[in-house]
Protein backbone atom coordinates (compact mmCIF):
# COMPACT_ATOMS: atom_id res chain seq x y z
CA UNK A 1 0.00 0.00 0.00
CA UNK A 2 1.24 3.47 -0.87
CA UNK A 3 0.52 5.95 1.89
CA UNK A 4 -0.42 9.34 0.50
CA UNK A 5 1.22 11.38 3.24
CA UNK A 6 4.56 9.70 2.65
CA UNK A 7 4.29 9.80 -1.10
CA UNK A 8 3.90 13.57 -1.06
CA UNK A 9 6.65 14.12 1.47
CA UNK A 10 9.45 14.05 -1.07
CA UNK A 11 8.22 17.16 -2.89
CA UNK A 12 8.18 19.77 -0.14
CA UNK A 13 10.12 22.81 -1.32
CA UNK A 14 12.71 25.00 0.24
CA UNK A 15 11.75 28.60 0.15
CA UNK A 16 12.64 32.24 -0.04
CA UNK A 17 14.43 35.10 1.72
CA UNK A 18 17.45 32.98 2.54
CA UNK A 19 15.47 30.59 4.72
CA UNK A 20 14.18 27.11 4.13
CA UNK A 21 10.44 27.65 4.08
CA UNK A 22 7.51 27.74 1.68
CA UNK A 23 6.98 31.06 -0.08
CA UNK A 24 4.53 33.29 1.73
CA UNK A 25 1.11 33.72 0.05
CA UNK A 26 1.75 37.41 -0.59
CA UNK A 27 5.04 36.55 -2.32
CA UNK A 28 3.28 34.08 -4.61
CA UNK A 29 0.49 36.53 -5.39
CA UNK A 30 3.07 39.20 -6.24
CA UNK A 31 4.77 36.79 -8.63
CA UNK A 32 1.36 35.95 -10.12
CA UNK A 33 0.71 39.62 -10.72
CA UNK A 34 4.04 39.96 -12.49
CA UNK A 35 3.15 36.92 -14.67
CA UNK A 36 6.66 35.55 -14.47
CA UNK A 37 7.10 33.77 -17.80
CA UNK A 38 3.93 31.72 -17.35
CA UNK A 39 2.89 30.61 -20.85
CA UNK A 40 -0.75 30.98 -21.88
CA UNK A 41 -0.76 27.37 -23.13
CA UNK A 42 1.22 24.55 -21.59
CA UNK A 43 3.34 22.32 -23.83
CA UNK A 44 2.28 18.69 -24.44
CA UNK A 45 2.68 16.26 -21.58
CA UNK A 46 5.95 14.34 -21.60
CA UNK A 47 6.26 10.70 -20.59
CA UNK A 48 9.06 8.19 -20.17
CA UNK A 49 9.39 5.81 -23.09
CA UNK A 50 11.86 3.24 -21.84
CA UNK A 51 13.09 1.70 -18.64
CA UNK A 52 16.65 0.90 -17.69
CA UNK A 53 17.10 -1.03 -14.47
CA UNK A 54 20.43 -1.92 -12.95
CA UNK A 55 21.01 -5.31 -11.37
CA UNK A 56 21.32 -5.12 -7.57
CA UNK A 57 24.90 -4.71 -6.42
CA UNK A 58 24.49 -6.38 -3.03
CA UNK A 59 25.49 -9.98 -2.19
CA UNK A 60 22.89 -12.71 -2.51
CA UNK A 61 23.19 -13.53 1.19
CA UNK A 62 21.80 -10.07 1.91
CA UNK A 63 19.21 -10.24 -0.87
CA UNK A 64 18.07 -13.63 0.42
CA UNK A 65 17.42 -12.18 3.86
CA UNK A 66 15.46 -9.35 2.25
CA UNK A 67 13.41 -11.89 0.26
CA UNK A 68 12.46 -13.77 3.43
CA UNK A 69 11.50 -10.67 5.40
CA UNK A 70 9.52 -9.29 2.48
CA UNK A 71 7.71 -12.54 1.77
CA UNK A 72 6.89 -13.85 5.23
CA UNK A 73 5.79 -10.72 7.10
CA UNK A 74 3.12 -8.07 6.73
CA UNK A 75 3.76 -4.36 7.21
CA UNK A 76 1.96 -4.67 10.55
CA UNK A 77 4.59 -7.18 11.72
CA UNK A 78 2.28 -10.22 11.54
CA UNK A 79 3.95 -13.34 10.21
CA UNK A 80 2.79 -15.09 7.04
CA UNK A 81 2.94 -18.87 7.53
CA UNK A 82 3.60 -19.88 3.91
CA UNK A 83 4.59 -18.52 0.53
CA UNK A 84 1.53 -17.75 -1.60
CA UNK A 85 1.75 -16.99 -5.31
CA UNK A 86 -0.14 -17.57 -8.53
CA UNK A 87 0.48 -21.02 -9.98
CA UNK A 88 0.41 -20.99 -13.76
CA UNK A 89 -0.22 -18.07 -16.15
CA UNK A 90 -1.48 -14.82 -14.62
CA UNK A 91 -4.15 -12.68 -16.23
CA UNK A 92 -4.85 -9.02 -15.45
CA UNK A 93 -7.70 -6.68 -16.36
CA UNK A 94 -8.48 -3.02 -15.72
CA UNK A 95 -11.96 -1.73 -14.90
CA UNK A 96 -13.51 1.61 -13.99
CA UNK A 97 -13.16 5.07 -15.50
CA UNK A 98 -9.54 5.39 -16.47
CA UNK A 99 -7.34 7.88 -18.27
CA UNK A 100 -5.74 6.81 -21.53
CA UNK A 101 -2.31 7.09 -19.94
CA UNK A 102 -3.20 4.21 -17.60
CA UNK A 103 -3.64 1.80 -20.50
CA UNK A 104 -0.20 2.72 -21.78
CA UNK A 105 1.42 2.40 -18.35
CA UNK A 106 -0.21 -0.96 -17.61
CA UNK A 107 0.91 -2.39 -20.95
CA UNK A 108 4.46 -1.18 -20.35
CA UNK A 109 4.49 -2.69 -16.87
CA UNK A 110 3.21 -6.05 -18.14
CA UNK A 111 5.96 -6.09 -20.76
CA UNK A 112 8.57 -5.45 -18.05
CA UNK A 113 7.17 -8.16 -15.79
CA UNK A 114 7.34 -10.64 -18.65
CA UNK A 115 10.80 -9.64 -19.82
CA UNK A 116 12.60 -8.79 -16.55
CA UNK A 117 10.81 -10.94 -13.97
CA UNK A 118 10.01 -13.84 -16.30
CA UNK A 119 6.36 -13.96 -15.19
CA UNK A 120 3.80 -15.41 -17.62
CA UNK A 121 1.35 -12.51 -17.31
CA UNK A 122 -1.03 -11.12 -19.92
CA UNK A 123 -3.85 -8.62 -20.14
CA UNK A 124 -7.47 -9.61 -20.77
CA UNK A 125 -10.56 -7.47 -21.53
CA UNK A 126 -12.25 -5.62 -18.69
CA UNK A 127 -15.30 -7.92 -18.80
CA UNK A 128 -13.27 -11.14 -18.63
CA UNK A 129 -12.39 -13.11 -15.51
CA UNK A 130 -8.84 -12.35 -14.35
CA UNK A 131 -6.39 -13.28 -11.65
CA UNK A 132 -5.65 -9.60 -10.96
CA UNK A 133 -8.31 -6.89 -11.24
CA UNK A 134 -7.14 -3.29 -11.34
CA UNK A 135 -10.13 -1.12 -10.51
CA UNK A 136 -9.92 2.64 -10.99
CA UNK A 137 -12.11 4.61 -8.59
CA UNK A 138 -12.28 8.19 -7.27
CA UNK A 139 -9.71 9.01 -4.61
CA UNK A 140 -12.38 10.07 -2.11
CA UNK A 141 -14.18 6.75 -2.51
CA UNK A 142 -10.94 4.81 -2.00
CA UNK A 143 -10.02 6.71 1.13
CA UNK A 144 -13.51 6.37 2.58
CA UNK A 145 -12.53 2.81 3.49
CA UNK A 146 -8.74 3.14 3.82
CA UNK A 147 -7.97 6.69 5.02
CA UNK A 148 -4.53 7.98 4.11
CA UNK A 149 -3.89 5.35 1.44
CA UNK A 150 -3.04 6.49 -2.06
CA UNK A 151 -3.85 2.97 -3.34
CA UNK A 152 -3.81 -0.61 -2.04
CA UNK A 153 -4.16 -4.31 -2.88
CA UNK A 154 -6.53 -6.92 -1.40
CA UNK A 155 -6.59 -10.73 -1.71
CA UNK A 156 -9.40 -13.08 -2.76
CA UNK A 157 -11.68 -10.44 -4.30
CA UNK A 158 -12.39 -9.32 -7.86
CA UNK A 159 -13.39 -5.70 -7.43
CA UNK A 160 -14.45 -2.90 -5.12
CA UNK A 161 -17.95 -4.19 -4.39
CA UNK A 162 -16.68 -7.60 -3.32
CA UNK A 163 -13.93 -6.03 -1.25
CA UNK A 164 -16.38 -3.80 0.63
CA UNK A 165 -18.52 -6.83 1.45
CA UNK A 166 -15.60 -8.94 2.72
CA UNK A 167 -12.92 -6.55 3.92
CA UNK A 168 -13.06 -7.61 7.58
CA UNK A 169 -13.52 -11.35 7.04
CA UNK A 170 -11.15 -14.28 6.72
CA UNK A 171 -11.57 -14.08 2.95
CA UNK A 172 -9.37 -10.97 2.83
CA UNK A 173 -6.98 -12.04 5.62
CA UNK A 174 -3.46 -12.29 4.19
CA UNK A 175 -2.41 -14.77 6.87
CA UNK A 176 -4.99 -17.29 5.61
CA UNK A 177 -3.68 -17.16 2.05
CA UNK A 178 -1.98 -20.33 0.78
CA UNK A 179 -2.21 -19.69 -2.96
CA UNK A 180 -3.22 -16.66 -5.01
CA UNK A 181 -6.10 -17.00 -7.43
CA UNK A 182 -7.84 -13.60 -7.26
CA UNK A 183 -6.31 -10.25 -6.28
CA UNK A 184 -7.61 -6.71 -6.60
CA UNK A 185 -5.67 -3.48 -6.91
CA UNK A 186 -7.50 -0.22 -6.23
CA UNK A 187 -6.08 3.04 -7.56
CA UNK A 188 -7.52 6.55 -7.89
CA UNK A 189 -8.34 7.80 -11.36
CA UNK A 190 -8.49 11.49 -10.48
CA UNK A 191 -4.84 12.12 -9.59
CA UNK A 192 -1.71 12.99 -11.60
CA UNK A 193 -0.52 10.43 -14.18
CA UNK A 194 2.66 9.83 -12.18
CA UNK A 195 0.71 8.92 -9.04
CA UNK A 196 -1.45 6.48 -11.03
CA UNK A 197 1.65 4.89 -12.55
CA UNK A 198 3.36 4.63 -9.16
CA UNK A 199 0.30 2.84 -7.79
CA UNK A 200 0.30 0.41 -10.69
CA UNK A 201 3.91 -0.54 -10.10
CA UNK A 202 3.86 -1.08 -6.35
CA UNK A 203 0.39 -2.58 -5.97
CA UNK A 204 0.64 -4.99 -8.91
CA UNK A 205 4.05 -6.06 -7.60
CA UNK A 206 2.41 -6.79 -4.24
CA UNK A 207 -0.52 -8.55 -5.90
CA UNK A 208 2.06 -10.88 -7.45
CA UNK A 209 4.67 -11.13 -4.71
CA UNK A 210 5.77 -9.65 -1.37
CA UNK A 211 3.30 -7.50 0.58
CA UNK A 212 5.76 -6.19 3.16
CA UNK A 213 7.83 -2.99 3.08
CA UNK A 214 11.28 -2.60 4.64
CA UNK A 215 12.77 0.80 5.45
CA UNK A 216 16.28 -0.64 5.21
CA UNK A 217 15.96 -1.21 1.44
CA UNK A 218 17.52 1.57 -0.60
CA UNK A 219 16.92 0.08 -4.05
CA UNK A 220 13.29 -0.96 -4.01
CA UNK A 221 9.66 0.13 -4.19
CA UNK A 222 9.10 -2.25 -1.25
CA UNK A 223 10.01 0.60 1.08
CA UNK A 224 7.65 3.02 2.79
CA UNK A 225 9.97 5.96 2.15
CA UNK A 226 8.51 5.95 -1.40
CA UNK A 227 11.60 7.42 -3.03
CA UNK A 228 11.55 4.70 -5.69
CA UNK A 229 8.24 4.70 -7.52
CA UNK A 230 8.85 2.33 -10.45
CA UNK A 231 10.06 -1.24 -10.11
CA UNK A 232 13.83 -1.48 -9.82
CA UNK A 233 16.31 -4.18 -10.78
CA UNK A 234 16.17 -5.50 -7.21
CA UNK A 235 12.37 -5.68 -7.36
CA UNK A 236 12.45 -7.61 -10.62
CA UNK A 237 14.95 -10.06 -9.14
CA UNK A 238 12.70 -10.60 -6.13
CA UNK A 239 9.69 -11.26 -8.38
CA UNK A 240 11.71 -13.56 -10.65
CA UNK A 241 12.75 -15.55 -7.59
CA UNK A 242 9.16 -15.56 -6.29
CA UNK A 243 8.03 -17.33 -9.47
CA UNK A 244 11.08 -19.54 -9.95
CA UNK A 245 10.38 -23.28 -10.43
CA UNK A 246 12.35 -24.06 -7.25
CA UNK A 247 9.56 -22.47 -5.19
CA UNK A 248 5.83 -23.15 -4.93
CA UNK A 249 2.82 -22.02 -2.95
CA UNK A 250 2.59 -23.50 0.53
CA UNK A 251 6.33 -23.58 1.26
CA UNK A 252 7.33 -22.46 4.74
CA UNK A 253 9.95 -19.84 5.53
CA UNK A 254 12.47 -22.56 6.39
CA UNK A 255 11.85 -24.41 3.13
CA UNK A 256 12.24 -21.24 1.09
CA UNK A 257 15.39 -20.26 3.01
CA UNK A 258 16.93 -23.63 2.16
CA UNK A 259 16.19 -23.18 -1.56
CA UNK A 260 17.30 -19.56 -1.88
CA UNK A 261 21.13 -19.88 -2.04
CA UNK A 262 21.14 -22.01 -5.18
CA UNK A 263 18.16 -20.16 -6.62
CA UNK A 264 19.70 -16.70 -6.26
CA UNK A 265 23.08 -17.93 -7.46
CA UNK A 266 21.35 -19.07 -10.66
CA UNK A 267 19.36 -15.87 -11.17
CA UNK A 268 22.03 -13.41 -9.98
CA UNK A 269 25.46 -15.04 -10.39
CA UNK A 270 27.27 -11.79 -9.59
CA UNK A 271 25.84 -11.92 -6.07
CA UNK A 272 27.51 -15.17 -5.09
CA UNK A 273 25.97 -18.17 -3.34
CA UNK A 274 25.83 -17.21 0.32
CA UNK A 275 23.24 -18.42 2.81
CA UNK A 276 20.71 -15.73 3.78
CA UNK A 277 22.00 -13.91 6.82
CA UNK A 278 19.39 -12.72 9.29
CA UNK A 279 19.22 -8.93 9.53
CA UNK A 280 18.57 -7.16 12.82
CA UNK A 281 14.97 -6.01 12.99
CA UNK A 282 14.33 -2.27 12.90
CA UNK A 283 13.06 -1.27 16.37
CA UNK A 284 9.33 -0.73 16.55
CA UNK A 285 9.90 2.55 18.38
CA UNK A 286 11.71 3.99 15.34
CA UNK A 287 8.93 2.90 12.98
CA UNK A 288 6.31 4.43 15.24
CA UNK A 289 8.26 7.68 15.38
CA UNK A 290 8.52 7.81 11.59
CA UNK A 291 4.84 6.94 11.15
CA UNK A 292 3.87 9.76 13.52
CA UNK A 293 6.23 12.22 11.85
CA UNK A 294 4.90 11.50 8.36
CA UNK A 295 1.23 11.02 9.29
CA UNK A 296 -1.27 13.82 8.96
CA UNK A 297 -3.33 13.09 12.06
CA UNK A 298 -1.18 14.82 14.69
CA UNK A 299 -0.34 18.48 15.38
CA UNK A 300 2.83 19.75 13.74
CA UNK A 301 4.59 20.04 17.10
CA UNK A 302 3.95 16.35 17.81
CA UNK A 303 5.17 15.38 14.35
CA UNK A 304 8.39 17.41 14.68
CA UNK A 305 9.07 15.82 18.06
CA UNK A 306 8.52 12.37 16.54
CA UNK A 307 11.00 13.14 13.75
CA UNK A 308 13.51 14.21 16.37
CA UNK A 309 12.98 10.91 18.23
CA UNK A 310 13.55 8.98 15.00
CA UNK A 311 16.88 10.76 14.51
CA UNK A 312 17.85 10.11 18.14
CA UNK A 313 16.99 6.41 17.89
CA UNK A 314 18.92 6.08 14.61
CA UNK A 315 22.00 7.69 16.14
CA UNK A 316 21.72 5.57 19.30
CA UNK A 317 21.55 2.42 17.15
CA UNK A 318 24.75 3.49 15.39
CA UNK A 319 23.06 3.52 11.99
CA UNK A 320 24.80 5.26 9.10
CA UNK A 321 22.36 3.93 6.53
CA UNK A 322 19.16 5.01 4.82
CA UNK A 323 17.22 4.91 8.08
CA UNK A 324 19.27 7.71 9.63
CA UNK A 325 19.18 9.64 6.37
CA UNK A 326 15.41 9.26 6.09
CA UNK A 327 14.96 10.33 9.71
CA UNK A 328 16.95 13.48 8.93
CA UNK A 329 14.87 14.07 5.81
CA UNK A 330 11.68 13.88 7.87
CA UNK A 331 13.15 16.24 10.47
CA UNK A 332 14.20 18.73 7.81
CA UNK A 333 10.85 18.57 6.04
CA UNK A 334 8.91 19.26 9.23
CA UNK A 335 11.13 22.23 10.12
CA UNK A 336 10.60 24.06 6.83
CA UNK A 337 9.39 27.53 7.73
CA UNK A 338 9.82 26.78 11.45
CA UNK A 339 13.55 26.42 12.08
CA UNK A 340 15.66 27.09 9.02
CA UNK A 341 18.93 26.08 10.69
CA UNK A 342 17.59 22.65 11.68
CA UNK A 343 16.03 22.11 8.26
CA UNK A 344 19.15 23.05 6.31
CA UNK A 345 21.49 21.03 8.56
CA UNK A 346 19.19 18.00 8.33
CA UNK A 347 19.00 18.09 4.53
CA UNK A 348 22.75 18.54 4.21
CA UNK A 349 23.56 15.62 6.50
CA UNK A 350 20.97 13.44 4.78
CA UNK A 351 22.42 14.31 1.37
CA UNK A 352 25.92 13.44 2.57
CA UNK A 353 24.71 10.07 3.86
CA UNK A 354 22.82 9.22 0.69
CA UNK A 355 25.74 10.32 -1.49
CA UNK A 356 28.10 8.01 0.42
CA UNK A 357 25.79 4.99 0.24
CA UNK A 358 25.70 2.81 -2.90
CA UNK A 359 22.60 3.02 -5.06
CA UNK A 360 21.02 6.03 -3.35
CA UNK A 361 21.52 8.75 -5.95
CA UNK A 362 17.75 9.22 -6.26
CA UNK A 363 17.39 9.79 -2.53
CA UNK A 364 20.25 12.30 -2.68
CA UNK A 365 18.35 14.15 -5.41
CA UNK A 366 15.40 14.62 -3.08
CA UNK A 367 17.75 16.38 -0.68
CA UNK A 368 19.33 18.25 -3.57
CA UNK A 369 16.07 19.90 -4.59
CA UNK A 370 15.84 21.43 -1.12
CA UNK A 371 19.44 22.65 -1.21
CA UNK A 372 19.15 23.99 -4.76
CA UNK A 373 16.05 25.95 -3.82
CA UNK A 374 17.88 27.37 -0.81
CA UNK A 375 20.79 28.47 -3.01
CA UNK A 376 18.35 30.05 -5.46
CA UNK A 377 16.64 31.97 -2.65
CA UNK A 378 19.99 33.55 -1.78
CA UNK A 379 20.65 34.47 -5.41
CA UNK A 380 23.46 31.90 -5.71
CA UNK A 381 22.43 30.93 -9.23
CA UNK A 382 25.61 29.06 -10.16
CA UNK A 383 25.35 26.90 -7.04
CA UNK A 384 21.67 26.16 -7.65
CA UNK A 385 22.33 25.17 -11.27
CA UNK A 386 25.31 23.01 -10.29
CA UNK A 387 23.23 21.14 -7.70
CA UNK A 388 20.39 20.62 -10.19
CA UNK A 389 22.67 19.38 -12.96
CA UNK A 390 24.30 16.93 -10.56
CA UNK A 391 20.97 15.20 -9.88
CA UNK A 392 19.16 15.27 -13.24
CA UNK A 393 20.56 11.94 -14.48
CA UNK A 394 19.47 9.99 -11.41
CA UNK A 395 15.98 11.52 -11.47
CA UNK A 396 15.55 10.82 -15.17
CA UNK A 397 16.61 7.19 -14.70
CA UNK A 398 14.15 6.82 -11.81
CA UNK A 399 11.37 8.28 -13.99
CA UNK A 400 10.22 10.81 -11.40
CA UNK A 401 8.64 13.51 -13.53
CA UNK A 402 7.46 15.62 -10.59
CA UNK A 403 10.95 15.88 -9.13
CA UNK A 404 12.51 16.33 -12.58
CA UNK A 405 10.20 19.23 -13.42
CA UNK A 406 10.84 20.91 -10.08
CA UNK A 407 14.60 20.72 -10.54
CA UNK A 408 14.29 22.15 -14.06
CA UNK A 409 12.10 25.01 -12.80
CA UNK A 410 14.78 25.89 -10.26
CA UNK A 411 17.42 25.77 -12.98
CA UNK A 412 15.35 28.07 -15.21
CA UNK A 413 15.10 30.64 -12.43
CA UNK A 414 18.86 30.40 -11.88
CA UNK A 415 19.53 30.99 -15.57
CA UNK A 416 17.35 34.10 -15.47
CA UNK A 417 19.38 35.48 -12.57
CA UNK A 418 22.45 35.05 -14.76
CA UNK A 419 20.76 36.91 -17.62
CA UNK A 420 20.50 33.83 -19.83
CA UNK A 421 16.82 34.42 -20.56
CA UNK A 422 16.50 32.47 -23.82
CA UNK A 423 18.10 29.38 -22.29
CA UNK A 424 15.94 29.80 -19.19
CA UNK A 425 12.76 29.80 -21.27
CA UNK A 426 13.74 26.57 -23.04
CA UNK A 427 14.47 24.86 -19.73
CA UNK A 428 11.20 26.15 -18.28
CA UNK A 429 9.19 24.78 -21.23
CA UNK A 430 10.92 21.43 -20.78
CA UNK A 431 9.98 21.48 -17.10
CA UNK A 432 6.32 22.13 -17.88
CA UNK A 433 6.04 19.10 -20.15
CA UNK A 434 7.28 16.90 -17.29
CA UNK A 435 5.14 18.77 -14.77
CA UNK A 436 1.98 17.84 -16.66
CA UNK A 437 2.84 14.18 -16.09
CA UNK A 438 4.09 14.67 -12.53
CA UNK A 439 1.44 17.05 -11.16
CA UNK A 440 -1.52 16.50 -13.46
CA UNK A 441 -3.85 19.46 -13.86
CA UNK A 442 -2.86 22.74 -15.49
CA UNK A 443 -3.73 24.49 -12.23
CA UNK A 444 -1.30 22.32 -10.25
CA UNK A 445 1.41 22.87 -12.85
CA UNK A 446 0.91 26.62 -12.77
CA UNK A 447 0.92 26.67 -8.98
CA UNK A 448 4.23 24.81 -8.83
CA UNK A 449 5.80 27.10 -11.43
CA UNK A 450 4.73 30.19 -9.50
CA UNK A 451 5.90 28.68 -6.22
CA UNK A 452 9.38 28.17 -7.63
CA UNK A 453 9.36 31.63 -9.23
CA UNK A 454 8.55 33.16 -5.84
CA UNK A 455 11.80 31.73 -4.46
CA UNK A 456 13.96 33.77 -6.83
CA UNK A 457 15.12 37.13 -5.46
CA UNK A 458 14.66 38.85 -8.83
CA UNK A 459 10.95 37.98 -8.75
CA UNK A 460 10.63 39.08 -5.15
CA UNK A 461 11.70 42.56 -6.24
Describe the oligomeric state of these chains in a short phrase. single chain
Shape: globular
Helix fraction, binned, reads 40-55%
Average pLDDT number: 89
The CATH homologous superfamily of the largest domain: Tetratricopeptide repeat domain
Spatial strand arrangement across the major sheet: 1-5-6-4-2-3
Count the E strands. Answer: 6
| Total discrete domains | 2
Q: Any idea of the CATH class of the largest domain?
A: Mainly Alpha
Which structural class should the secondary elements be placed in?
alpha/beta
CATH topology of the largest domain: Serine Threonine Protein Phosphatase 5, Tetratricopeptide repeat
User: What is the CATH architecture term of the largest domain?
Assistant: Alpha Horseshoe
- What is the N-to-C succession of helices and strands? EHHHEHEEHEHEHHHHHHHHHHHH
Radius of gyration: 22 Å
Would you give an account of this structure?
The protein has 461 residues and is of the alpha/beta class. The chain is built from 18 helices and six strands. Strands 1-5-6-4-2-3 form a six-stranded mixed β-sheet, with helices on both faces. Helix 4 links the parallel strand 2 (90-96) and strand 3. Helix 16 (401-417) runs antiparallel to helix 17. Mean pLDDT is 89; it is low at 4-35.
Blueprint (SSEs and pairs):
Layout: E1 2-3, H1 4-7, H2 25-34, H3 60-71, E2 90-96, H4 100-116, E3 121-123, E4 132-137, H5 139-145, E5 149-155, H6 160-166, E6 183-188, H7 193-208, H8 233-242, H9 253-267, H10 284-294, H11 300-316, H12 322-334, H13 340-356, H14 361-377, H15 381-398, H16 401-417, H17 421-439, H18 442-453
Parallel strand pairs: 2-3, 2-4, 4-6
Antiparallel strand pairs: 1-5, 5-6
Helix pairs in contact: 3-9, 4-7, 10-11, 11-12, 12-13, 13-14, 14-15, 14-16, 15-16, 16-17, 16-18, 17-18
Amino acid sequence: MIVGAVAGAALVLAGCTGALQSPAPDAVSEVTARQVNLPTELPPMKAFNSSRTDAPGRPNSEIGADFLDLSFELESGRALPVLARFEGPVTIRMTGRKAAVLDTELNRLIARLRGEAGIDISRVPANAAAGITVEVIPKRQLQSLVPGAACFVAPNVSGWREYKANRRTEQTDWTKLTQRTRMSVFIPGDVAPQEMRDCLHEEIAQALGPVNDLYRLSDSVFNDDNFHTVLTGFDMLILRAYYAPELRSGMTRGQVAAALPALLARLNPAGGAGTPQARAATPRAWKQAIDTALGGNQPSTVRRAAAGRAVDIARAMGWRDTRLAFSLFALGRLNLGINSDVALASFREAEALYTALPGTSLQAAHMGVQLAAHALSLGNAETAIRIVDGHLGAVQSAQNAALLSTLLMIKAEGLEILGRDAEAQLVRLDSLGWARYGFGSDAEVGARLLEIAAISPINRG
